[in-house]
Amino acid sequence: MTQDSQIVSVDLDAPTHDLDRLIGSLETGSVLHVPTLPFQLTPDERASLDPAHAVKGRKNISLPPAGTALIGVEPADPAHATLLGLVTRYANAARLWIDTLFPHYRAHLIAAPTSLRLHRVETRHTSWRKDDSRLHVDAFPSRPNQGERILRVFMNINPHGEPRVWRVGEDFETVARRFLPRLPRQWPGSAALFNALGITKRRRSRYDHIMMHLHDAMKADMAYQRSCAQITLPFAPGAGWICFSDQASHAVMSGQFMLEQTFFLQPQDMAEPERAPLAILQRLAGRSLI
Ligand code: SIN
Ligand code: FE
Hints:
Blueprint: E1 2-4, E2 7-9, H1 19-27, E3 31-34, H2 43-47, E4 61-63, H3 80-101, E5 110-117, E6 149-156, E7 164-168, H4 172-179, H5 190-196, H6 206-220, H7 222-227, E8 231-235, E9 240-244, E10 250-254, E11 258-265, H8 277-285
Parallel strand pairs: 2-3
Antiparallel strand pairs: 1-2, 3-9, 4-5, 5-11, 6-9, 6-11, 7-8, 7-10
Helix pairs in contact: 4-8
Bound molecules: succinic acid and fe (iii) ion (FE).
Succinic acid binds next to strand 10.
């Protein structure tokens, strides 16, 4: 395991892991880089990596937990079965890697979707708010999570040798201290109203309000995007990387073909809940946020 500020390199095959140190790195917001994941594509799977299989207008192909059909590929598409097999295999493999590296979480991980991204990053044109080439922490506007952690396992499966290039920014508390004073306040009653109107799937807590506005404020500030402390990381084909994406400031600059598995985790089930964005924000705000 080698440490380079926000990035920690992990060898999944090493006979002994320093698991306490590893979970410490993950929970303090590092991105764990696994240079070679033990996961290979079959020739059929490789041949099916083509954006033509993605339903038009969709960013991701996804598989709900224990799902039996992909969302974002027509059921009649001849590649559906092959791609479903690939995504299902990845979901199972990612669970195994997380169970191996973080036994502390094993009993507490909450299943979440697996996704397959076939589109090229550089040619995607979207609004600034959806532009993931700007540094951000993940927050979902329609899915308030009241402090729940977002743990993600990514893998570059590009068959043409192309890296997936990420930027990783400064640590969460530094980001929060910079942006918190500028965030708009949540007006009274809005959480209940959004919930009643069906805009949000659960009540939007003060935590969710802050996380969503933090995501937006980071992306909206182009001077910050250029000048904050950051590193650029090319993830080679076959490599994986793992992070709490609600905590690690990240952006994707280029690449094509990726698998991603999300897990949710309650902050109280972390090795040290005090490291969660919820705890950090509550300490900075001086009050409860859920
Ligand atoms: C993101 O989570 O911001 C996108 C990551 C990626 O597409 O590599
Ligand atoms: Fe993101």
